[in-house]
Amino acid sequence: MKKVILKVLKYFFIVIFVLFISMVCLQRFSNNRIAIFNFRLFTVITGSMEPRYKVGDVLVAVETKPEDIKVGDAISYLGAKNSFKDKVITHEVVKIEKDKQGKYYFHAKGLANAIEDPIVGEDQLYGVVKYRVVTLSFIYKIVGTPLGFFIFVVIPILYIVGSELVTSLMEKEELRRSKEAK
Hints:
Elements: H1 2-29, E1 39-43, E2 58-62, E3 74-78, E4 88-98, E5 104-109, E6 120-121, E7 125-133, H2 134-143, H3 146-181
Antiparallel strand pairs: 1-2, 2-7, 3-4, 3-7, 4-5, 5-6
């Protein structure tokens, strides 16, 4: 019974690990263009939103209708102009405008920045930041170092692969011995 529980726990952690890595890779390689169940993960890479968000914090943004966004919300969007072009930005909404066709435009600014970002169209929005994930932020800050990456990514992958290899070899040997015993 103990072996079954350990095996279930092992596979549970493998599945969680693979899902987390898959989500991070999907977000990274798609430049966050793909949402998973309307959620996106972002990592803060500058101090523009301090003190609310610090460098290395992992944020969860939820796709939100433009009309539901309020002044003071932190939005994540794909920059379209100047130094913002093709970068994912997370800044606070300071003003909202709506044109005659009903399209929304957002004025956003980093809390630590002196000037406002270029105007953000509703088609650039990824979502509104709803959560700062403390545990993932902590893990990201550790895994972001070479030693942390080795300890928390390389070693677990080697353990999983090695464990599966040893288990497979032991099962084959046990099967061979049982055939020889007959």
